[in-house]
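Appendix B. One record, verbatim.
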Amino acid sequence: MSAGYPHWLLKTFTCPVRHPPGRKRGTIDVAYTPEREGAGMARSARDAGVPAAEDTRDPDILTTEELAARLGLDVQTVRGRAAAGVLPGGRAGRRWLFSWTAVYTWIAGPGVPDGEVLSARQLARRIGVDIQVVRRAAAPPGTPGKLPGRQVGKKWLFAIEAVRRELGHGGLPGGPETRPVPAAAQPGSPPAG
């Protein structure tokens, strides 16, 4: 292959193929000429007009690492809970993939608008109560009189929109009532009767 090209245009590459023990790796000579570099082939998929995988991926589909970051959990916890069937997700080869819509619906319950997901500590700070009150009041979505959330490993997760909806229906279980006071019971109103 060296015939016809100056020695400074030849590059030597190690062959990436594995050889049996005792045999040397082969080398190949490749001629590089600047005028042939762009002729006929694009240097990358982007040059050829093929969109990259990141550009075409559905933003609702998350990897294990992305879901763990969004929920504030450890990657191993997410994998373990998904393998146990606790978290809604599926395997694609060796990777776990998750639909954010499905995970959010699992945490918040059906029909709750998309919003922020908080831990029990963050929720306790947000609504101004002790973390133990939040943990005692936590239950899966659909449980009447409880804060809708899900326990993943040792951590409780809550969708703030679902909590707002529940607090609007009757207050925090074990906490002060938030129901509106009837007009007859308000101070300064005439007694009923």
